Amino acid sequence: MQLIAVCCTVAGTVWRMTKPIRQIGDRVKKLEQYSHNDYMRTLKLTIMNEDLPIEDRMEAGEAYTKEGGNGVAAATYKLLIERYMEDHKDG
């Protein structure tokens, strides 16, 4: 009978410990998502910033599209490639 009580106590303790661990896991996932969103925004800002060298903008565009980015920033990246190829076709 005591063995069953001990087992139940241990099981209850383990069960109570899993909730904080799950919460930590959920928080880590949320922070990873926030970090990825910030990364994508930084890439997008780099692509769209006409004051930066085209090579930097193209590098950001490549990373952005590899990460699944699309929309205006991806379209701008494609235009940057075309412009770069046009500007450098003779040299």
List the helices and strands and how they pair.
Blueprint: H1 2-48, H2 54-66, H3 72-87
| Strand portion | under 5%
The secondary-structure class comes to: mainly alpha
Number of helices: 3
Order of helices and strands: HHH
Q: How many separate domains make up the residues?
A: 1
Q: How many extended strands? A: 0
The geometry reads as: rod-shaped
User: Separation of termini?
Assistant: 87 Å
> What is the residue-averaged pLDDT?
92
Largest sheet: none
Helical content, roughly? Answer: over 70%
Unreliable stretches, pLDDT < 50, 5 or more residues?
Answer: none
> What is the CA-based Rg, rounded?
25 Å
Please describe the structure with a list of short key phrases separated by commas or semicolons:
mainly alpha; 91 residues
